[in-house]
Design brief:
This protein has 13 helices and 18 strands. It is of the alpha+beta class. The radius of gyration is 26 Å and the shape is elongated. Bound molecules: 4-amino-1,4-dioxobutan-2-aminium adenosine-5'-monophosphate (4AD) and magnesium ion.
Length: 431
């Protein structure tokens, strides 16, 4: 008998098949057992009627504890009431491994309890839906880039210097020298862009940020494209296209998952309808002041500020041309107004905050050196980076998409901790 996956079950209507998986849940009604079986690719209801079954097997069906691993045989039957469209008329069950006293029951649990049991929490339908959407988001991002001539180039994780400011560095000992876990692969992508034109890296990044918000992870995944001969305007156009492509792809492939997550799908559909809004930092500050926010020109936005700006629009908004003083050392000043930089943050709608940070980079050797000094960065560690301006410097731009922030918005979650398999949070490195 053929062993099949639940996702393919529709191909086997009327046939006898074997399924291998786990018992997710059981209901019984009189002399019938309903077993919800999951195999990682889906959930299916198995039905066993006492009058038609081997008594020993029926007894097993009635007593196997939740999350035990099982192998079952049965006949695939169309069932219009099930979300899958099919159920399995069970004939045989083999217990592979009994799960005694599974700690996560199907009732509500507190978040700390669930995070302590993240290794098991991952098995629930909601978490499975989020992980599958995460997979699609990564694939869509990469497909879009790969089909436009971008080349994946991997950046190192152990680095000799800071990229995004020295306050959030994770320090480690590198055989007697100081090294840091990467905050961003960007600087290495700039080197790669001078070799390959259009590149991107995708990997984990680390920020030793003492923030305990629903938008911050200590370890998060970032996708960072970098493009030679691309300037500020084109940089934003590319960001808009890729974000829309990912949302369109998720809407096409994951309607059921989004419904399971109770996502208001119409809010995502709206994002595809028109160009992303633009707002200057100046205008943003003026607006926030008019709304009574305590903020001055030259201040960075806090979460409530970002939410207020995002609420002006029903799609994402680019806030551009920030004061140079509050942004990273590598950002290129606007030639018309050197006190601001050619950078933009993309704020997601519905209060999800910044999902992309990007900028045109300084291509002038002298200015870059001056900035490195102003930021008290160790000049020696940046000699290789300065070489990119010494030898054939060109205008170039790039951006970083925070994967978990993006998924949090797409899924409409209240906290980004569910979007990463094993979140590293301020007070959590277990499991
Ligand atoms: O704005 P950030 O710090 O930009 C950079 O690192 C640039 N070097 C990117 C580039 O131009 N190549 O980070 C980019 C994005 C943010 O917009 C946010 O989505 C995400 O990374 N991010 C975080 N996500 C989760 N937890 C954190 N602590 C994050 N910090 C940034
Ligand atoms: Mg940023």
């Amino acid at each position: 008998m053929q062993t099949v996956l639940i996702r393919d079950i529709g191909q086997y209507e009327g046939k006898k098949v074997t399924l291998k998986g786990w018992l997710y849940n059981r209901r019984s009604s009189g002399k019938i057992q309903f077993l919800i079986i999951r195999d990682g690719t889906g959930f299916i209801q198995g039905v066993m009627v006492q009058a038609e079954s081997d008594p020993e097997i029926y007894e097993l069906a009635a007593s196997i504890p939740q999350e035990s691993s099982i192998e079952v045989q049965g006949t695939v039957k169309r069932d219009a009431r099930s979300p899958l469209g099919y159920e399995l008329v069970l004939e045989n069950i083999v217990l592979i491994s009994e799960a005694k006293d599974y700690p996560i029951s199907l009732k509500e649990h507190g978040v700390d309890f669930l995070l302590d049991h993240r290794h098991l929490w991952l098995r629930t339908p909601r978490q499975v839906a989020i992980m599958r959407i995460r997979n699609t988001v990564v694939k869509a991002l990469r497909d879009w880039l790969d089909s436009r001539g971008f080349c994946l180039v991997d950046a190192p994780i152990l680095t000799p210097a800071a990229c995004e400011g020295t306050t959030t560095l994770f320090e480690t000992d590198y055989f007697g020298e100081k090294a840091y876990l990467s905050q961003s692969g960007q600087l290495y992508m700039e080197a790669a862009a001078m070799a390959l034109g259009r590149v991107y890296c995708f990997g984990p990044t680390f920020r030793a940020e003492k923030s305990k918000t629903r938008r911050h992870l200590i370890e998060f995944w970032m996708l960072e494209p970098e493009m030679a001969f691309v300037e500020h305007e084109e940089n934003l156009a590319i960001q808009e296209e890729i974000v829309k492509y990912v949302i369109r792809t998720v809407l096409e492939k994951h309607r059921q998952d989004l419904e399971l997550l109770q996502r208001d799908i119409s809010r995502l559909e709206k994002v595809l309808e028109k160009p992303f809004a633009r707002m200057s930092y100046d205008a943003a500050i003026e607006y926030l002041q008019s709304q009574g926010h305590d903020i001055q020109w030259g201040d960075d936005f806090g979460a409530p500020d970002e939410t207020a700006l995002a609420n002006l629009h029903d799609g994402p908004v680019f806030v551009e041309r920030f004061p140079a003083a509050i942004k990273a050392f590598y950002m290129k000043p606007d030639p018309q107004r050197p006190e601001v930089v050619l950078a933009a943050d993309l704020l997601a709608p519905e209060g999800y905050g910044e999902i992309i940070g990007g900028s045109q980079r300084i291509d002038d050797m002298d200015l870059l050196l001056q900035r490195i000094k102003e930021h008290n960065l160790p000049e020696e560690a940046f000699q290789w980076y300065l070489d990119l301006r010494r030898y054939g410097s060109v205008p170039h731009s790039g951006f970083g998409i925070g994967l978990e922030r993006f998924i949090t918005w797409i899924c409409g979650l209240s906290h980004l901790r569910e979007t990463i398999p094993f979140p590293r949070l301020l007070n959590r490195i277990y499991p």
